[in-house]
Design a protein that fits this description.
202 residues; mainly alpha; two-stranded antiparallel ribbon; 6 helices
Length: 202
């Protein structure tokens, strides 16, 4: 893929980097902008997003199981005919019914999300690439390395060096309006040679 010039961030976007119009930032390995979290999901936080939705599913299963167990215990304690059991089950365990139903609904909705992102891990794709149908056949993607290797890379791989040098101080004379943008920037390879030297020395 060719690097593209970002008019907003004023730099050449590497492959798989997408500019988010909501965050007004370029995001590496852009997956999607999550309105519930209020943040972009990309290279540096995708694993935590996966952990979050997996843990939510497990927690919802736990709540459903605990709610059902509480209802069963109440039914066993009161016993009697069927109408008496049903009456006491609803009266004395109404909280369990509400929590269990709510957790079941969240589990179904969140479970769809878990299955979807697990499928994306298997296909070595991001949500952005899947929606735009960039690589209909996963093996044709230049980022395809296999399901297991890609899943390990996404969930347990090391971080890449940051593009922003946080140790660099911004002078008080810095003027954003003084930046000159190229009208027709030429295609350039990524990453530039200076990036390798900077990352090796830090």
């Amino acid at each position: 893929e060719e690097s593209k010039w970002c008019e907003t961030c004023c730099f050449y976007r590497p492959p798989r980097v997408v500019h988010c119009g909501i965050c007004s930032n370029c995001v590496e390995d852009f997956d999607h902008h999550c309105p519930w979290l209020g943040n972009c999901i990309g290279r540096r936080n995708y694993r935590f997003y996966l952990y979050f939705i997996w843990v939510v599913s497990i927690f919802c299963l736990f709540i459903v199981g605990a709610s059902v167990w509480h209802v069963v215990i109440i039914c066993i304690d009161f016993g009697g005919d069927f109408e008496n059991v049903v009456y006491h089950a609803f009266v004395y365990s109404s909280c369990s019914w509400v929590l269990g139903l709510y957790a079941a609904i969240v589990f179904v909705l969140n479970g769809i999300l878990v299955v979807y992102h697990t499928r994306l891990l298997y296909r070595n794709q991001t949500t952005y690439e899947f929606i735009r149908n960039k690589y209909p056949v996963p093996s044709t993607s230049p980022f395809y390395v296999g399901p297991l290797k890609y899943a390990f890379f996404k969930c347990c791989g090391s971080y890449r060096w940051n593009f922003v040098d946080r140790r660099e101080w911004i002078s008080t004379s810095y003027d954003l309006n003084s930046l000159e943008r190229e009208a027709d920037p030429p295609n350039r390879t990524w990453p530039p040679p200076s990036a390798h030297s900077t990352s090796s020395t830090t």
